[in-house]
Amino acid sequence: MTDAREGFVGALAAWAAGGVPVDAPAGVRAAILVEGESDRAAVEALAEKLGRDLGSTPVIAMGGVTNARKFVRVLGAEGLSLRLTGLCDLREERFFRRAFPAGDRYFVCDADLEEELIRAHGVDGTERVIASLGDLPAFRTFQNQPAQRIRSVEAQLHRFMGTLGGRKIRYGRALVEHLGTERMPAPLRAVLASMR
C-alpha cells in the first residue's frame, strides 16, 4: 500500500473514532468497505495474487459493520464522492443494505469470509495452511478442549482462527494466498471485479 493510501486509511480510522474529517489523496476515486482487518487482508491478498493494483482503491476496515452508514456518508455521494463497494457477512447484510444507496454494490459472504475460505480449501487444505504457519499443534490441542469436541471440524477451524489477536488477519491473507483463483469464493472475486 502506498504511503498516501495508508495515511488516508489511518486518517479515516481516526475520524471514525471522533477525529476531524479527511480528504481523499489525489487519484483515489473508489473504496472497498469491509468489516475488519482480516477481511481487508484477504481482499488485498487476492488483489496481489491477481496482479491488481489497488493504488486508487483503498480497502477500508470499518472496525465493525455497524459503522457502515458512517463510512458510506463520509466516503460516498454525501462526502468525498468516491465510488463504493463492500464485502460483508450474511448476518450483517442488513447494515450494508441500510447504508449503501441504490446503485452502489456490495457482496455478501455465506456465512462469513472465513467460512467461505474454509469451504473452498476443505478441511485437509485448511489444515495444510494451518501447518504452513506452524499452528497445527496448537489446533490439535484446541480440538481436544471439551467445548470443541462436540463441534464439526469446520466449526473448530473457524473458531480456532478467532482465538488469538491477529490470528484472523494472518489467516485471512494465508487462506487466499494458498488457494487457486478458480476456487476463490465468489463474493471475494466479485468485490474486486466490481472495481474495474
Description:
With 196 residues, the chain is an alpha/beta fold. It folds into two domains: 3-111 and 185-193, Dna Topoisomerase Vi A Subunit, Chain: A, domain 2; 113-182. The protein contains ten helices and four strands; from the N terminus they run H-E-H-E-H-E-H-E-H-H-H-H-H-H. It has helices spanning 3-16, 37-50, 68-75, 93-99, 113-132, 136-143, 146-149, 153-161, 167-177, 186-193, and strands at residues 30-34, 59-61, 83-89, 105-109. The protein has a four-stranded parallel sheet, sandwiched between helices.
Q: Which stretches are poorly predicted, pLDDT < 50 over at least 5 residues?
A: none
Q: What's the CATH architecture name of the largest domain?
A: 3-Layer(aba) Sandwich
Q: How many DSSP H or I helices?
A: 10
Shape: elongated
What order do the strands of the largest sheet run in, or round the barrel if closed? Answer: 2-1-3-4
Report the average pLDDT across residues. Answer: 90
Instruction: Output the helix-strand order.
Output: HEHEHEHEHHHHHH
- Domain count: the total is 2
Radius of gyration: 17 Å
Fraction in beta strands: 5-15%
Largest sheet: 4 strands, parallel
| Total beta strand runs | 4
CATH class designation of the largest domain: Alpha Beta
Structural class: alpha/beta
State the share of residues found in helices, binned by percent.
40-55%
Give the end-to-end Cα distance, rounded to a whole number of Å: 18 Å
Q: Could you name the CATH topology of the largest domain?
A: Dna Topoisomerase Vi A Subunit, Chain: A, domain 2
